[in-house]
Amino acid sequence: MRLTNKLLVFFIPILFITIAGLSSFSYYMSQQNLLRQEVRLLNIVNNQISKSKIEAKVNLLSRSGLKGVDSFESAYQQEVFVEFNTLKSNTNKSFHIIDKNTQTLIYSTNKDMNYQAFNQIDWQDLQEVSGTITLNNESFVYSGFHFVYWDWQVYVTESLTVISQPIETLRNISIIATICATVIGSILIWLVTKRIIINRVTLLKDATQQFSKTKKHISNPLSGRDELNDLAEAMRSMSIEIEDSIDKIEAANQAKTEFLATISHEIRTPLNGLIGSAKLLNNTNLDDTQDTYVQALIKSSQTLSAVINDVLDLSKIESGKLTLERTLIHPAELINSIEVVFLKSALDNNSQLTCESNIDNQLYLYSDVVRLRQILFNLVGNAIKFTSNGQINVHFSLTPRAVDTDLATHEFVASISDTGVGIEENRMDAVFESFTQSDNSTTRKYGGTGLGLTIVSKLVELLQGVIKVTSQINVGSTFVISIPITIEYGEDPYTEKQAESNLQYKENLLILLVEDNEINAMVAKHMLENYGHTIILANNGSEALTAINAQHFDVVLMDIHMPVMDGIEATKQIRAMSDPNISSIPIIGLTAEAFEARHQLFMAVGMQSVITKPIDEAAMLATIHQVVNKYA
Fold first, then answer.
1. How do residues 470-527 score in pLDDT, each as one tens digit?
2. CA–CA separation, 484 and 411 (whole Å)
3. Cα–Cα distance between 293 and 298 in angstroms, integer?
């Protein structure tokens, strides 16, 4: 309900009740005053007119010496009755005479009146009485006196209806006036509140909406020295403080983003060389032992890359910006990766690692494999770290969901139990908090940042799953995760869908690789040459400009951070060239920066796509062919 309507709903009943109450009170006071005036008038009529006429007849009897003669007294009484009839005609008032001794009606100008009510009047030895009385179901005002000689009780009455008739008209007028006053008052209240309150509140609302949109401080839209102006002034001051706080927060976030981007670049750049070299080594002739070690190196490097990604993405998780990429994986692959990475670590700790699954071998899990593996690696790594001379058990199972959807038909349940140091009961919830471990001495003894279980908890929540922990000191701990997934049978059904994308994988592409890091350049060059492509190297953006002016390339792989001229400036200059064969050449960015905002910047200056380091060989090849097919 709008504020104007609320004010009207509040004030109209009050206004109506007030005016109606005043009108009713005025009517009541007018009626009472009129009754008092009528009683005084009746007293005057009785005492000065009626009484004088009766006394005149009695005095006439006395002077004529006829007192006590019944016939003459009866005649004189009749003359009194005649004069009362005349008074009735002249005054429109009724006259009644009651015999005090017999309480019978002697005379009345209203023959049909039931006089019994007069007998209920309590005289209490009074000579005069007055008040109201009900006769024939009608209210009357009366005045009476006692005429001693004839022992009469003489009354004069007037109908209350007749008396009240003038103020009844006044009452009707008051009702109409009350309604009119309420309507007029409501209109005035609406106009006043609209001008004094509503319009000013609207200005305040507009100012707050402006602040909400612009995040810039607002000026005081009001004038005056009332409470609303005080509120507007307080809002102005608050907006200045909020704007200042927003600026500081944005500056802090920018500094944080730049710091994380720098850290990401500095870590990913050597990691790219590490992973790439390991993959290149894997393509050489290796014996079984060497192959095992290389596979462990590759998987560990990939896991390290995932850990770095997740730590850097912690801020994305908390801000809700981390996206999921679901792919198929066989449970056996998860178990194998866990065994390859952690089996030796467990043995080094004099512990035994066992992994088992009761999931059908023909089933594939469809989920975010990177996030799922990160969760499992964190939990298994923690179990090994905190278990010496003990046992670590990993168990996978699959259960149908009570209510399935297109995105989740089953629950993937993973249990990681150990016989390690355990967690104190009062620290159970704390282990999922950032930078927190089960004991303050844990960091000194076992190392770690205390972020592992925080990331696990947030990733499980992101996958719409749940995580539970049970533990006992010096007995061990068990972590159980339950994550909703879908399943597929047999071979990867998405392989066919990938084939349907109709990508034409071109061979013998001439690729300009612009990379200042020798190891990364070597890794990328050998990866691409293994697929039959010809690679020309450039160490910076300036050399790249010279190269593309000298010969035509099918695509350019452009690193971002380079000396002399970086990838962004080089891309701008290429796009600004007049020769359309050069300015339209496809450019793919190579970067160790993981933040989407930076990727959008690279795309904005003219790159068609971005590959993030550490480079995944398959992803790089797919991106190159997608860009070449679309833009070349």
1. 999 989 999 999 999 988 887 544 344 444 444 456 778 999 999 998 988 998 999 8
2. 5
3. 9
Phi, psi (degrees; rounded to nearest 5) at 60: -65, -40
8 Å CB contact between 183 and 190: no
Planar angle of CA 493, 481, 347, nearest 5 degrees: 95
Q: Are 22 and 185 in contact (CB under 8 A)?
A: no
Distance CA 417, CA 384 (A): 10
> Hey, is 399 helix, strand or coil?
strand
Q: CA distances (Å), 561 to each of 78, 187, 274, 281, 541, in order?
A: 137, 71, 19, 27, 10
- Widest CA span of the chain, in angstroms? 170
Q: Which residues pair with 469 in a beta bridge?
A: 479
DSSP conformation letters of 44-70:
HIIIIIIHHHHHHHHHHHHHHT-TT-H
Q: Confirm if 611 and 620 have CB atoms less than 8 A apart.
A: yes
Q: E strand or H helix at 139, and its extent?
A: strand 138-147
Alpha carbons 299 and 291: distance in angstroms, whole number: 12
Using CA atoms, how far residue 530 sits from 270, 283, 526, 535, 617, in Å, is 22, 10, 6, 11, 11
Q: How far apart are CA 534 and CA 525, in angstroms?
A: 9
Residue-level pLDDT at 540: 95
| Residues ≥6 apart with Cβ < 8 Å to 20 | 178
For the chain, how big is the Rg over CA atoms in Å?
Answer: 53
CA neighbor of 53 nearest in space, from 198, 125, 157, 154: 154
By C-alpha distance, which of 524, 536, 529, 513 is closest to 617? 524
Residues 65-80 have a mean pLDDT of 86
Higher pLDDT, 73 or 255: 73
Give the integer Cα–Cα distance in Å for 568 and 561: 9
Phi, psi of 476, deg, nearest 5:
140, 180
Q: How far is CA 593 from the centre of its chain?
A: 35
Nearest to 294, CA basis, from 272, 270, 269, 274: 274
For residues 54 and 147, the answer to whether their CB atoms sit within 8 Å is: yes
594-605 tens-digit pLDDT: 777 788 899 999
| This prediction's pTM | 0.44
Band of pLDDT at residue 548, cut at 50, 70 and 90: very high
Q: Answer yes or no: are the C-beta atoms of 87 and 93 closer than 8 Å.
A: yes
* CB-count burial class (<10 Å; 0-12, 13-18, 19+) for 330: middle
3-state SS string for 238-297 = HHHHHHHHHHHHHHHHHHHHHHHHHHHHHHHHHHHHHHHHHHHHHCCCCCHHHHHHHHHH
Which residues 6+ apart lie within 8 Å of 319 measured at CB?
none
Name 142's bridge partners.
131, 157
| Contact present, 488 and 328 (Cβ < 8 Å) | yes
For residues 416 and 394, the answer to whether their CB atoms sit within 8 Å is yes
DSSP letters, 87-123, are HHHHH--EEEEEETTTTEEEEESSTT--GGGGGG---
Could you give the CA distance from residue 513 to residue 588 in angstroms, rounded to a whole number? 10
Helices (H), 313-330: 314-319
| End-to-end CA separation in angstroms for the chain | 61
Q: Cα dihedral sign for 338, 344, 350, 356?
A: positive
